[in-house]
# Entry
Amino acid sequence: MSVFNDAGLLIIGTRLKRLSDRFLNEVARIYKSQNIRFEPAWFPIFFLLDKKDSLSLTEIASELEVSHSAISQMITQLLNKKVVEIQPDASDARIKKIVFSAKGKKLVEQVHPIWAALQKSLNQLMPGDITGEQFLKTISQIEEKLTNNSLYETTLTHIDSVSPEIELVQPDEAAKKKLLSWMRIENTGYSYTSGKLLLALQGNVILGFAVYDVLEQTVFLKYLYITPLHRRKGIAFQILQFLKDRESPVCFNIDNANIDLIKLLIKAGFTFKVN
# Structure
């Protein structure tokens, strides 16, 4: 377990999957020991139908917050096992409802005692200072946070905030020639013709550059480039902040409406124009 402790929350996905797999295997063994042909994966639909009597595919998908196709596959499996049936809705025959078959009703009666026993066992698994209700509330809070702020987007924000120590300089003629040569070797996709230059340096290493002009308190940003190895490290943000502080623009004018660049401008509180 030392690696799990060392990794902390970084390994939470692996640990939750391992816990889930173990739980489902244990539950499958319980059903098998009681000679009940019931698969743990059926539980959410069986539990819903036991409470609601009948539901459409769309209603089941909405209740379980999963895709329509995933529920359709599960219902097809249950139909093949002959534990559910499809019936037209009493108020609208165009709507198809999923209901228990006679076999399904008998099966759900068999699993009721298993569910009750499982509930008691799961309560006993909880640490002394945490109730099952508190545990489930914590899971719900994490799920809600993931819905409102995806782990992907949040992590990229943190990556962007880890900025290396760089120096921002406006090159002289010698440094400008070096930059133009580097731009060709680096294959930046930009052919410089005119405009002010701003270099992002780490020692003598070029990490990126900006090409821009200033007119009537507007920064006309022609091109902004960061080397692939140093992207998403906050360098672009530092360049924009430098331009704001140095040139004191009222707004930025962008040649190309790059969404990532626009997000950076908004994050920094800039106003801007898009051609």
Remarks:
- The CA atoms of residues 53 and 99 lie 6 Å apart.
- The longest strand covers residues 205-215.
- The two ends are 56 Å apart (CA to CA).
- DSSP finds eleven helices and nine strands in the chain.
